[in-house]
Fold these 3 entries.
Entry 1:
Amino acid sequence: MAHPAHYREAHPFIFVMTHWINLVSIVALTISGFYIHYPFLPGLMSVMRGMHFFFMFVLLINLAVRIIGAFTVKSATRLGTREVDTDIKNWLPQKLNRGQMWPWLKYYLFLKKEHPIGAKYGVLQKIAYLFTIPLTLAAAYTGFAIWGPTMDWGFLIAGTDAVGGPMAMRIIHYYIMWGFILFTAIHIYLANIEGTDPSKLIFKWEETEGLQFDAEGRVVGGKGH
Ligand code: HEM
Ligand code: HEM
């Protein structure tokens, strides 16, 4: 299958970095969170709590940088071309996404071999990526509501009272972790069935030499495309 390109305009360096930081933070928060919930080895609680408290700030600062970047950095907004536009366009519905929901679903359900070509991200990809923002904010809200230094802040107490106390809030925070695990598992799986090496797409892109596109924006030439 001809597949979409990996090239500099599709993955500006800053977004490669924010994605890496996201990945490391989520892994660290999941390991430490699991440990806080169920200490599977003796004697590591203070290290794990320290790790959790450090990475929760890293995750939130990284989210802020990613959002500012979406409005200030330009990236490719159409698969298979080098045209660039403000990155936020990749996150919202575009003309190029129209009518592609079903073809994308069929591709994901193995009913169709090729996926539609158009915008950089498909319809379901956009929904999933946007969903990571409220999910992160929900983790932050429920997390700060059970964190000693912030738990008595008015807007956090209001939520804690509404759900029935800090223990209930803690359980909600725990379930949010499963939301991240589910998202990440599906995300990694889908990145791998794309037919190209996902590490090249986002982790360590390499400029394809002599890149050529066909009329539909598929890569048809270039070294190692
Ligand atoms: C081994 C783990 C992961 C792999 C293999 C992976 C793979 C990818 C790939 C290939 C893309 C680019 C898709 C494209 O341009 O067509 C992408 C984008 C994205 N990934 Fe991941 N990812 C991983 C972990 C995560 C985690 C843990 C999160 C957050 C919870 C995450 C959130 C995102 C988001 C929000 C995007 C949109 C692009 C952007 O922020 O610029 N990923 N990922
Ligand atoms: C984004 C901001 C976050 C904040 C402010 C935060 C804060 C906290 C706090 C204060 C605790 C309680 C620690 C203790 O009792 O010693 C905690 C526990 C926990 N956190 Fe987070 N966290 C955040 C993100 C995350 C993320 C992204 C995950 C998972 C992907 C996660 C998973 C957990 C788990 C599983 C627990 C244990 C809950 C339990 O005891 O059942 N947290 N977090």
Entry 2:
Amino acid sequence: MKTEAFRIYKFGGTGEMKWETVEVPAPGRGEVLLRHTAVGLNLADTYRRTGLYPMPLPNGMGNEAVGVVEAVGPGVRALKVGDRVGYIGGQAFDAYSKRRIAQVASLIPIPKFIDDRTAAAALLKGITAQYLLRDAYQVKRGDTILVHAAAGGVGIIMCQWANAIGATVIGTVSTEEKAHFAKRNGCHHPIVVKRKGPKFAKKVRELTNGKGVHCVYDSVGKETWDESLACARLRGTVINFGSASGNPPLVDLAATGPMGSPFIARCALVNYTTTRKETLARADDLFRAIKRGHVKVRVKQRYKLKDAAKAQRDIEARRTTGSTVLIP
Ligand SMILES: NC(=O)c1ccc[n+]([C@@H]2O[C@H](COP(=O)([O-])OP(=O)(O)OC[C@H]3O[C@@H](n4cnc5c(N)ncnc54)[C@H](OP(=O)(O)O)[C@@H]3O)[C@@H](O)[C@H]2O)c1
């Protein structure tokens, strides 16, 4: 069977994304044929396109999508034709496609109360928010946390969820419009950061009576890391989980002693979704948060899948808020 999909042969700009007709084989043992109905856009898709996150080439693109099972391989009993499922990795990169072969072991059944577009907008970003808030640092009622890129895909879910847990949420954003959006979605104190000069540490100290926050969640990296360290309270936690402005600099560990001995980690989704059981448990927690209304999934941009290059340019240029889905 033939389908259409993006292929990339060389790292670089969005001009390297090639929309092609490709062959899809029949599903093998432990596999299904999926027809995608909605694909999630993630900033990390752009890191892989540019080579910031290296991957073998040539390759497909994207690692988050939702779809319908169209055929099952030999021995597959866990799923049947017509089932709605999604994934957040565990597969070759090929989410930017109309159809694909997928490993049953990595598929997440989508509950009836969540439609496909919402699921594609929520799965990867929501499970990331889940492990960051529940595990990497366990946010408790009464905590104060700092979330960078608070109006973004992961950020807006974190603000809502942390707020529902009972934490005070401080967030950084680049525009007043994003500040309003973050505020409407659980961020108590959005800070609009300027491109030049000190950005947010002084304000965070003011907002916390000089103490600093229990946890900093930094997905911006290079431009924010040093100030992020300065925002943690005594024995607080500083987590980097992204490189929107480039990778964070090397840490001078000895220098962090006088800063209150913060716990420092670089967190990656793959290390918190190590088995299907773990992934499904995190997905269930996310689905419960959505059902209870603690997390409202904000699908703010939709593009045709074949316009994914435009979507990538928009997320790179900080023109998006909330989640973005690509429709095959
Ligand atoms: N480690 C993990 O497990 C994991 C999993 C998923 C996502 N992530 C990371 O989480 C972050 C958010 O992902 P997302 O897909 O939801 O993206 P997003 O937050 O919707 O978009 C990125 C945002 O980063 C901010 N930003 C700050 N400096 C930037 C710069 N120099 N260039 C571009 N953007 C900049 C922008 O918000 P402002 O304009 O408001 O500053 C922008 O909107 C990314 O860094 C991603 O890599 C990590």
Entry 3:
Amino acid sequence: MFCGLFESHTGICAHCEDVLPRNDNFCCRCGQPMDAPSTGASPCGACIAKQPVFDLARAPMRYEFPVDVALKKLKFNRKLQFAPPLARLLEPVARQSFSGCDVLVPVPLYRWRHARRGFNQADELCKTLAKLTNLPVLLTTKRRRATRSQSGLDAAARLKNVRSAFVVEQPVRFRYPLIVDDVITTGATCNELADALKQAGAPRVGVLAVARSSAL
Ligand SMILES: [Zn+2]
Ligand SMILES: [Zn+2]
């Protein structure tokens, strides 16, 4: 899916697998890439200043070439065949960091954005991840209103844009939902959804995305 040159049953050839921008040094809480090698125990400045609502967020990749290009193609060029290989990158993290999670929650799109795009990339990732992990998928979360695309907004604007954007339509019976998305930028969207899930009864909430960019 990255080079278009070599065949692979996983969708990612061994050459590309070797050079993927892995997110190996990250904040222990929000998962955002950090410069200094971390021991896996230190939170970033943003998490020290204000604890996120979600309990743990992880992303196996940094939002850099070629992962950024693949995620844009999935979303904007309907490359739905990219979703299963990307979801397979999530599986080991789901098993290692979120072994207690009992349900997957794709970040919902507002209904007309969903209708116009024809699919939700988070749903597509969850389809494969659900098969690989045997976890159910929770589909009772909705976007309350149309939020602007987060692209091109700074951190403060992103936060304001998604505030109270989500509603969970039924009480959550699960103990530890795992929010799944394609990319985390500031974490504002996932934080709002985590808040809605906790208000609906979830004691803990995790977040898992394919890629994480450094919050600005
Ligand atoms: Zn390749
Ligand atoms: Zn952090």
